[in-house]
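Risk register update: the risk that structure generation would not scale has been downgraded. Supporting records follow, first protein first.
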Amino acid sequence: MKELVKVAAVQTDPRIGETAANLEDILNATAEAATQGVRLIVFPECGLTGYIFISREEAMTAAETIPGPATEKITALCRQRDVYVVLGLLEKDGERLFNAAALVGPAGVIGSYRKNHLPFLGVDRFATPGDRPFRVFPTPVGNIGLFICYDIVFPESARVMTLDGADILALPTNFPQVRRETLSTHVINTRAIENRVHVIAADRVGHERGYGFAGLSKIVSATGKEVGLASPDREEIIYGEVDLEQARTKRMVITPGEYELDYIRDRRPDIYERLTDATPE
């Protein structure tokens, strides 16, 4: 039996360091998406802050705590509109700086994630590596897993959340324009297909301090079908509908009794021991 949830990815062009203006855009987009019956809305990586910071000190001036001022305002709107939001931001925790995502609902912050895999680019050069494992957060709109941008090229990230029961993987991202043909076009869909899980990828557009961003935000169903796709260069909201039951049914029957697949059951963990060995050959 289908269990349909309407979702959205918001493709933005945040202004670096201008958190008040970016938050206003986030609130306006959330309100707009809510009028379309959306229950889950995903924003880009560092959508609150911008990404290409030139020093740790500069980045810390834009960082907030979780919960904090931005999540409190988003909570109030979520309560009013009965929606759930995934927000990308910089999180400060004492003297530490994290590239983070927060999952916010009508009752407040449900959970947060700190980016585990950090490329040598933008603010990630100054961020502290994530200090928490990947987690899945149960909500009324599905079991939601969080990861950020570069995490997606490590297939273990999506797989461990799938094994923990994720229905939807929310991916706030800032894919560089030069990686559009690989990451945006292929890798997002691959993670959905190989795990039979829905993926909502919210990317940004525009240019920031000499770097261009890929756009092409997308919503990919657990079958790998693109049910929403944004342009490469415009701020916009894309919408799609995902079936939670589809993500929870890993067994695919192509020809009953003759041709069946299950990407989870058919794994062979007993021969994957190399994955637990961090020593390079």
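Supporting record for the second protein:
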Amino acid sequence: MRSRGGYVQNRKTSWRIAYYDINHERQFESFATEDEARRQLATRIAQVAAGIPISSKPNMVTFGELAVDVHNDYTINKRKSIADMLARLELHILPVFGKRKAAQITTAQLNAYIVQRKAETPSPSDGTINRELELIRHTFKMALDSGRVLRMPKVPHLRENNTRSGFLSRAQVERLCAAMKEPYGSFTMFGFLTGWRYSEIRDLQWRNADFQAGEIRLDPGTTKSGEGRVMPMTEELRALLKSRAATKRAGIDVPVAPMAAKTFVFQVGGNPVGQFRKTWKTACYKAGLPCVVKPVLVKGKPYLRKGKPLVKVVKAEHIFHDLRRSAAREFQRQGFSEGQIMRMCGWKSRSVFDRYLIVTNDDIRERMEEIEALNHVKSSASSSGND
């Protein structure tokens, strides 16, 4: 049996250590200074004595090399967030950790990274930094699973104050849709009735609508989570889709068969609906929803149209994504369980679902009033019975 000891060797440009792992195989590692080499050798010998699996190869791989595996994984699985992932890596993470050995990255260094990011101008939000930390954690987790590293540091996580808020009632949505031209009005109402994301509605095709089965399906790989989804076709959704089909076919209520082609349900000029932020803001103003406006000036004076000052909508308080949490609240009021709502709307984790703050103070107050009214009725009935 070979000795489990090791030695340090001066290589002129570096210092190399040699030691035997728990399988009695010789391993070599190189370091810049003699002190570092001796310190690491003592660590390796202690780890081997404790029976900890260790190898020079995982200890030599850089974080940049591990990041290549993540890029390949995103590409192979056709993940839609690949552009965001690359931007986070190339702009922020790799300049700091790219050339460092993954095995030598510590939690303290990750905390220093957070401090460095917060010191930048403009300072990124805690949520932005957390997405970068999650990518670092994912990179280490993939490397750990594949054996490219033997351990990973504890990756910190910042507390976020990003609870979703902002709801639209049915009456507000109906006014909003009435203030828009087609297909934007139908697009908006579909979002309220399903709680689906903007991109999922935009990419919806007629082949996804099964009128006979009474279902609207999203194919696997077309959603944010990558999983497929099924939404039962209510009468209101059926009428909305048939209205879109009738508009598409010159006012004729077309049967199911002609809609089997890969054509988009909501389209403009044959292309899927694009971003309609200006249309949305204008419709919010016309529907009487909270907006920030400023007068249109001509030569420093308010521009009048039909005797009224013309205004420009700078910002609408509500955004399209508010329809998603509004739909979830409607489903909850209709008696659907949280698990059913998550499945229909596409929330994969409970933690994300909770951030949408589906239950509001008004909801609690309304429920308490209902309970009090019910108790009052029971009390009155009890009193009448006693009489």
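The chain has three domains: 6-60, 63-146, 170-328. On this basis the risk owner (M.S.) recommends closing the item.
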